[in-house]
Design a protein that fits this description.
With about 110 residues, the protein is an all-beta fold. The chain is built from no helices and 10 strands. It has strands at about 5, 10, 20-25, 35-40, 45-50, 55-60, 65-70, 75-80, 90-95, 105-110. The strands form 2 sheets. It has a 6-stranded mixed beta sheet with strand order 2-10-9-4-5-6, with no helix packed on it. The radius of gyration is 13 Å and the shape is globular. It starts with a strand and ends with a strand.
Amino acid sequence: QVQLVESGGGLVQPGGSLRLSCAASGINFDAVSMAWYRRRPGGLRDYVGLITQAGTPNYADSVKGRFIISRDNAKNTVYLQMDGLRPDDTAVYYCNVLGTTNFGQGTQVTVSS
């Protein structure tokens, strides 16, 4: 059974940084691409970015240059480093096994002064 557990969310001031983690189990982590999504208040779940099995990232235009996705296959963990946070980054952030309906429970990120 696939399990994804996100952590690292919290309250941060505009311009601040957070690093989210997603620990995966029940999958052959090395063989899958992993993605991050977010759901803003009152909105749909939007694509944030992904990282392929080979470690190649891709980002939504809204976060390009501010967010970095990385992975540690030895720890079955994918990370989302978020810098230059803005109030409109406020959302619940989810990780996902790309191409599947497997999502974690999400972690809340609130950007506010």
